[in-house]
Amino acid sequence: MSRKPNIAIDGPAGSGKSTVARELAHRLGFLYVDTGAMYRAVTYFAKKTGTDVEDEQELSTLVKGMRFSLIRYTKDNIVTLWCNGEDVTPHLREKIVAGNVSKVAAATSVREYLVRYQQFFARTGGVVMEGRDIGTVVLPDAEYKFFLTASLDERLKRRGKELQAVGRAWTKEELRYELTYRDEMDSKREIGPLKKAPDALVIDSTNLIVSQVIEKILESYGGG
For the chain, where are the alpha helices, taking DSSP H only? Predict the structure, then answer.
């Protein structure tokens, strides 16, 4: 059997990449890998253990003791993230996690450790991996690369619906601060910044529904 290709999807928070990547993986029968969830998991464990998220050494010690696994339910392609035997998926959208994840993601030791895990998940091909540095750092040799964008207002609307669906209450002002703060932090960090790969196809999803974005990706995928 020939090796399945890897698909890298990057973009800022709220651009729709998680929903698109999850559904695309389901359509193709690939494994969905949400790299942002891994950084959120480290943030969750940092808060749970009293680790200082601004102390590089403390974060380094914490993350090196974490073991990640993905459990995929093939019926509906739901993938849950487990760390050290705990399903952390229900905790990843908590306010305290969202408010600190950019600090954790900027730590060199954290990024280096998680990138190795992410590359391990993709080693045999057949993954749809989404994040902010997939096409440039994690999977620079991915056969297909896409960069999703959307207007800030549209991203705010989408993130609000996301949080509402999991029972999280946020004001519009809190959401705007979170997204603009993360955009700035993610774009300016020295290690693995949010950046479009030179060979990535840019898709502006502002006025597109999920199925339309997926069709654009599949057109490129089918034509590859």
Answer: 17-28, 35-49, 56-63, 95-98, 101-105, 108-121, 152-165, 172-188, 210-223
- Do 160 and 175 touch, CB atoms closer than 8 A? yes
Name the residue type at position 124: T
CATH of 7-223 among 3.40.50.10860, 3.40.50.300, 3.30.430.20, 1.10.357.10:
3.40.50.300
Residues 145, 135 contacting (CB under 8 angstroms): yes
10 by DSSP, 3-state: which?
strand
Q: Tell me the pTM.
A: 0.87
Query: How far is it, in rounded angstroms, from Cα 52 to Cα 55?
Result: 5
Averaged pLDDT in 10-residue chunks for the chain of 224 residues? 87 89 92 93 96 95 94 73 92 88 91 95 94 94 95 87 73 81 79 88 94 94 64
